[in-house]
Amino acid sequence: WAQQGTVTPEGPRPSHTYKVVLLGSMSVGKSSLAYRYVKNDFRELLPTVGCSFFTQILELDEATVKFEIWDTAGQEKYQSVCHLYYRDAHAALLVYDIANKQTFSRAKLWLEELEKKFLPDEIVIALVGNKTDLAAEREVTTEGEDFARTKGLLFMETSAKSNHQVNDVFMAVGELWHGSSPFIVTEMLLPASPACTTP
Amino acid sequence: MAADVHKKKSWEVPNGSLAPGDGQHAERSESPTPGLAQGTEPGAGQEGAMFVHTRSYEDLTSPEDGAAAARSPEERRGEPAEQSSMEQISKDFSELSTQLTGMALDLDEEMRAGKEGKLEPSPQTARRDSVLSGKEEEDVTMDAWRSHRKHVFVLSEAGKPVYSRYGSEEALSSTMGVMMALVSFLEAEKNAIRSIHADGYKVVFVRRSPLVLVAVARTRQSEQEIAHELLYIYYQILSLLTWTQLNHIFQQKQNYDLRRLLAGSERITDNLLDLMAHDPSFLMGAVRCLPLAASVRDAVSSSLQQAKAKSLVFSILLSGNQLVSLVRKKDQFLHPIDLHLLFNLISSSSSFREGEAWTPICLPKFNSSGFFHAHISYLEQEMDLCLLLVSTDREDFFTVSDCKRRFQERLRRRGVQHALHEALRTPFYSVAQVGIPDLRHFIYKSKSSGLFTSPEIEAPYVQEEEKERLLGLYQYLHSRAHNSSRPLKNIYFTGPRENLLAWVTNAFELYVCYSPLGTKAGAINAVNKLMKWIRKEEDRLFILTPQTY
Question: Is A33 an interface residue toward B (CB < 8 Å)?
């Protein structure tokens, strides 16, 4: 998928634009994930105001994929405008902080909201447990994965700080949209970090 | 500067009240006199002003302070938002119905269900935020907490803490309860508490239902100036929520904990208070421009003007807290307070450095009941040049984003980028350029344009506290000049470490700082020389030809 250029011997490569929205509580690391993915860097960021917009272009084997990433503010006062940002989204990353159980509950509420607004095949939803670097303070263990499985969501644990699986989340979402079977991707993703496997 | 550049029409000031009569502005005189008409002073725009006209500092505070605060809350209940004539105009601005009805509905639902604790309780978010902003909560029982020069508290009418500059709000809930008790006690007598002066402290109260703002200060500022700062804090809160939503919330639930909605924004308020302590923009009620050759600025303005879209109301380019260019929709005027709030928002958040931000924002002096949507982005990495495009249409992100692209393309084509880069390397000029030996610093404000200019603060004002002391002196002169019962036009102040002069006319305000060795006669001589210098440099220091779409 790392192929460069837009024209192959077979002719112009198809290109797709996907809208990905990051949703979740304040301070779970939505902006850090976006920043890590787009700039491959990490820094302590201040709370997002409103929403930040990024684009990233991915060269997959068969196509060029352009991600339009909408990184929303987790603050409550902006939550009523969030529908502006997630409308027509192809994928949503529901982010929570593995060291803060409340943010996991909030991610579940986000899912309820998305289920009201989208049909199941309209949107790819990934549940993302961020901050695996804080494993010592972990509050959410296997619930994340279990919940994702029962709801049929993609699941992954990440760390924007230590660059753990951040690329993979976006790749998985992109692969899913451009035609791979969702089951293959889900299986590929499920054996997540060891801290998360069921006993 | 030739006089014949002024077409008669160009002097039409939209609100009419401040336009100088015909003929008065025929000459842009070389050496301004106290009788100089507004609109002809150095820095006055040739095409009229960019801002809502605020004749002076009093205009910003007194209509509200005087009329509204004197009445009891019963009388004020159900009254529409404070309406200035500008807001009336803006109401007619049909497209501006970008209210967040969704939010109000959500809140309703939530309050009925009473599931307040279910989402994110504020202590949690507050803790998280204090971690993020690097601001350690102080122990309010310590002497260090007591020794701060200015405390600011915001509380709801139910006495619930909303904001405290220092220390956690929880720890201060009883203190705030006492404050509310004071306010209520006097209101029961159909009276209103304005301030308490004791032991070197001023405790100033500003009542803006449903909020009460209190400052406890031992600065040299007058009560009026402290109240003015509290109003800024109030407008800051409105800019996040709108007046309509704020009132709606408290009508639904009197003891609502507003910190939930303000969570994550405390640093914006903190930053505003810090900014007011060292930036004279707030004191002057005016905006400072980045010094820039007129040809470069005009090229920037034209590029902004050409990159327009139907929903755009204001296109603003700024660097630090200085204005580079502002283009506005015809007949729409920005208020300096609203622009200050935008400056503060940008300087208090690093998140705009990455990507493109798209955020709802209320400009409370323009229209306190609705949201605009602002597109905020930096032009280039590592360059302090921020573009702010204010749109009425929240759906218009991609159109507005394209305006930015077009603007940058035009800048490139006009080849002014290099000159702009150069100007950004020296965002302040030295007072030495004026060529007056005893002159240390000055602030000059053109009243008709709402712009001011000021050199860099140099030695001996090197330390932060020295800079604040200098601003404190200006504040003192300003408060004497604008004292509501006994305003002064000319003040000469001799202090142990410097001499100061203030000169306030209908057209301009000038505050000058000299070395302590000079004489009064020398100071007055210097003023004439200084005014000539400002006149000579005005097209670099001010925006003389503001543009509209």
Answer: no
Determine, yes or no, domain membership for B292.
yes
* Shortest CA distance from B261: residue in chain A: A77
In which residue are the tokens 């690093």 written? B350
* Residue B132 and residue A44 in contact, taking contact as beta carbons nearer than 8 Å: yes
Does residue B401 lie within any of the structural domains? yes
* Secondary element (H or E) of residue B314: strand B312-319
Which domain does B382 fall in, by range? 287-425
d(CA B38, CA B32): 11
Residues B90 and B226 reside in one and the same domain: yes
Question: Where do the H-state alpha helices sit in B379-504?
Answer: 397-414, 417-425, 464-481
Nearest to B357 among A38, A50, A100 (CB): A50
State the Cα–Cα distance between residues B63 and A166, nearest whole angstrom: 55
**Strand-pair partners of A17:** A66
Shared domain check, B194 and B93: yes
DSSP output for B35-75: TPPTTSSTT--BTB-SB----SHHHHHHIIIIIIHHS-HHH
Q: Is B263 in a helix, a strand, or coil? A: coil
**Do both B313 and B240 map to the same domain?**
no
- Give pLDDT tens digits for B357-402: 999 999 999 999 999 999 999 998 778 899 999 999 989 999 999 9
The answer, yes or no, to whether residue B18 has pLDDT greater than 70, is no
- Residue A124 to chain B, least CA–CA distance (Å): 23
Of the candidates B102, B349, B394, the beta carbon closest to that of A49 is on B349
3-state secondary structure of B80: coil
Q: Which of B396, B425, B454 is the last residue of a domain?
A: B425
Supply φ then ψ for residue B530, to 5 degrees: -65, -45
Helices (H) and strands (E) in chain B, counts: 19, 17
**CATH code (residue B205):** 3.30.450.30
Q: Are residues B319 and B205 in the same domain?
A: no
Provide the CATH number for the domain around residue B454.
3.40.1840.10
Within 8 A of B357 by CB-CB distance, chain A residues are 48-53
Mean pLDDT of B54-79: 41
Number of structural domains (chain B) is 3
Q: Which residues of chain B are within 8 Å of residue A47 when distances are taken between CB atoms?
A: 129, 132, 264-265, 267, 349, 351
Q: Based on C-alpha coordinates, what's the Rg of chain A?
A: 16
Backbone dihedral angles phi then psi of residue A191, each to the nearest 5 degrees: -70, 75
Task: With respect to residue B136, please indicate whether it lies within any of the assigned structural domains.
Answer: no
Instruction: Assess contact for B385 and B424: CB atoms under 8 A.
Output: yes
Please check whether residue B531 lies inside any domain of the structure: yes
Question: Closest approach of chain A CAs to the CA of B280, in angstroms?
Answer: 26
The CA distance from B443 to B429, in Å, is 13
Any CB–CB contact under 8 A between A77 and chain B?
A: yes
**What ipTM score was computed for the predicted complex, to two decimals?**
0.83
Residue B56 CA to residue B484 CA, distance in Å, equals 12
What is the reported pLDDT for B33? 54
